[in-house]
Amino acid sequence: MNELKFVNDERNEKEMTFDEKFRFVMENADSDKLQMIVAKEAKMSEERIALIRARDFEVDRLTKACETAVNESLEKREELEQTSYNLTVINEKLKQVNINYDLQLKALSERQRQEYRDMITVMFETDTVPEYIRSESPPACVIRKITTEATTVRPSGPTLRDESFTIHIGTQVKTTHNIRIMQGNSLVEKLAAFNDDPNPEHDFSQRLYTLMNLYGSDLSAVVLLVDRDPLFHIHNRTQFFRICERNTELHFDDIEVQLNSTTQQTLQMNKVRKNELPESTSYDIPTSCSKFDEQLCEVGDLMVTKHSNLNNAHVVFHLVVDKTLESDEIASRNAIMLGVRKIFQAASM
């Protein structure tokens, strides 16, 4: 077997960036090594999900205890001082649990990210899978495949709708775009890298497809509708945020870091907008009644995040909308439609 080497590249291997090494390995490694990469990701996912479940169990237990303490404070008003003290203690425990698990998750992310990068570097330099990776126990999804009878029939759900369209955008100069619309029962079904009870072959093929195109031009994207709050996903712990949380982001910044970055960009952008407002605005509209807020996005704004820990999506467009979207008709000059136009412009770059 030929050793993996760059052709006509005079740079030292130590000078190669991780994304270059990763792309080369994905394009040149054999199926066995590719399968080991996906299996390693699945193993990391299981470790992270176990920690998240432990955290959620503790948080849920303390939250219920907090609710019980509140109810007792309403029923036993004569013991208000004691119940208030109990409530304070529980809230402090809840705060400490969140801080503790947050630190554990960050430490786990750093360790997994380093292990993953070391594995890819060894594959790039030696064309071999590190022995400590091969000696690890297989991920649970593989064990389930082995222990499950081949004759087991999986319940078939309703057929999901999948249609493709060709559209033309523009007035004088039109651009052609191909669109594929898929109907899914949930975000987990489409975006989760590894499901709780997966079909191993499907997980492998979907994950491999996502990784093969991670640093290429054939990227996949998803559009999510969000509120004006730049930290909407974090504050509401949306399903999308929970999906991102399940797997360590091994290539890019974590979702929290990316969203916090958009918050700073929103503040800077809104300062420019405020200067562009008509002079009469500050006099005609009372501050308490004005909808303009420097910390919030405007309807039609677009936030973009990049991901390697999702399936079927490398880029996520977060389109800011409001209740006007619920109306039957939206004018072509509506801010939301202008936001959709921005998505197509960004996707065609």
From TrEMBL:
GO cellular component: cytoplasm
Domain of life: Eukaryota
PANTHER family to which the protein is assigned, alphabetical: PROTEIN C12ORF4 (PTHR16525)
UniProt protein name: Uncharacterized protein
Record Pfam families: Fy-3
InterPro entries linked to this entry: Fy-3 (IPR019311)
